[in-house]
Amino acid sequence: MKKNTPQQFHLTSLIMAAASLVVLASCTSIEEIAPPIQGRALSSADQSTNVNININTTTNPSNYSITQLEQGRQIYLNECIACHGPRPINEHSLQKWDQIIIRMAPESNLNQNQTTALKNYITVAHNILAVPTTTTTTNP
Fold it and tell me: How is the chain split into domains, by residue range?
């Protein structure tokens, strides 16, 4: 990644603080914006190749490593959100994400491994967010 000057670091810190306030103010948790992977069993829904995963990656979703996915999440949180604010991953289609990543990876000085980690995380997180959560209540 690129080296930041002290002024850039300070500006980035202010942006991150502002982004955090927006998240808190909107009652949306960071997990709803960028779901964590660590500790999550990748279900067949997360790994499915039947979900129209076409983000120009040669990696089969079933071969994603937890370490790589967590690296991609950290890139999303630290690079993408720093400039664009906390926006849910499922705000865009996977095809649109492919276009965004192709355009923005060079501007963020992401190397090929980081770009691949980000693409893979976006793919899996998009599928996680696409699965509706169910809430169960108990009758008193």
Answer: 6-130
CA distances (Å), 9 to each of 2, 13, 86, 137, in order? 11, 6, 19, 46
Closest CA to 1 of 123, 124, 115, 116: 115
The per-residue b/e assignment along 8-17, b for 16 or more CB within 10 angstroms, e otherwise, is: eeeeeeeeee
* Three-state DSSP class for residue 85: coil
Backbone angles phi, psi at 26, to 5 degrees: -90, 0
Tokens at 68, concatenated? 């790589």
Q: What is the mean pLDDT of each run of 10 residues along the chain (140 residues)?
A: 65 63 58 74 42 37 79 94 89 94 95 95 86 50
